[in-house]
Amino acid sequence: MTDSLNELKQKLDAFVQARDWAQFHSPKNLAMAMIVEAAELVEHFQWNTEAESHVLSAEKREQVGHELADTFVYLLRISQVLDIDLIEAANKKIALNAVKYPVEKARGKNNKYTDYL
């Protein structure tokens, strides 16, 4: 069974507290750690074609999953430290993006929103 976001946050908080790591979890350190993990994720796709990036061996898929998890855990942790509700923030950002990228102008295009102004 998949943990809910709140259950995962509780598990992560207990993990951090048991190791006395909160002292190292400044927003700066967590943001930097998240970017490092995101770079390790990118490394798995470096030099792949678009098509190759869709087809992962079982071993590569597991490795990519680990890097996604590392990135997600740091994202979740920084949201805890800064007391930001990720679900609320994501919903607000989707609403903002809907205004910046209106369907009638953006559908099927990858232009930056400033091209639609």
So, the CATH homologous superfamily of the largest domain?
A: MazG-like
CATH architecture of the largest domain, please?
Orthogonal Bundle
Largest sheet: none
The CATH class name of the largest domain reads: Mainly Alpha
Low-confidence stretches: none
What proportion of the residues is helical, as a percent range? 55-70%
Which outline best applies? globular
- Mean pLDDT over the residues: 94
Q: How many structural units, i.e. domains?
A: 2
Number of helices: 6
Order of helical and strand elements? HHHHHH
Could you give the count of β-strands? 0
**Per DSSP, what share of the residues sits in E-state strands of 2 or more residues?**
under 5%
Distance between the termini: 45 Å
Structural class: mainly alpha
CATH fold descriptor of the largest domain = Helix Hairpins
What is the CA-atom radius of gyration, in angstroms? 18 Å
Question: In words, what does this structure look like?
Answer:
The chain has 117 residues and is mainly α. The protein has helices at 5-19, 27-43, 50-54, 58-81, 86-100, 103-106. It folds into 2 domains: 1-84, Orthogonal Bundle (Helix Hairpins); 86-117, no CATH class. Helix 2 runs antiparallel to helix 4. It is globular and about 50 Å long.
